[in-house]
Amino acid sequence: MAESLAMGRLAWPDETSTSRLIARLAALGRDKLKEDPELAYRARLAKVTALAGKHPSKLGPYYLDDLRQEWDR
Which has the closest alpha carbon to 10: 1, 21, 26? Predict the structure, then answer.
């Protein structure tokens, strides 16, 4: 952590607040992580998994079969 703060002070010499410096370093790390395609995929997968089953279909289990039968008319 000390090395990160030292590098942050070099990058942003006008930043005098250690807490703001830590916030800037954290934001920079977050932005770097967002660039990782594997991490982005895992984040999307986690969101989809969290939503799965929370909004059950109101259309019923045979919705697609009923829809397909309409095509033949």
Answer: 21
User: Helices (DSSP H) in 12-36: which residue ranges?
Assistant: 18-34
Number of domains in the chain: 1
Range of the domain at 65: 2-71
CA distances from 59 to 16, 53, 68 (A): 59, 14, 14
How far apart CA 62 and CA 6 sit, in angstroms, is: 63
Q: Are 32 and 39 in contact (CB under 8 A)?
A: no
- pTM value is 0.57
pLDDT band (50, 70, 90) for residue 70: confident
